[in-house]
Amino acid sequence: MGIALISGASRGIGRATALLLAQEGYTVAVNYHHNIN
Fold it and tell me: How many domains does the chain have?
């Protein structure tokens, strides 16, 4: 398939999207940011 870059893939819609695309055969690159404050 293709390559997908998912921003905010650590939870919620981003995570679900990343998992679905991976199951469909995409190479998935994820990005997230955690702010302690």
Answer: 1
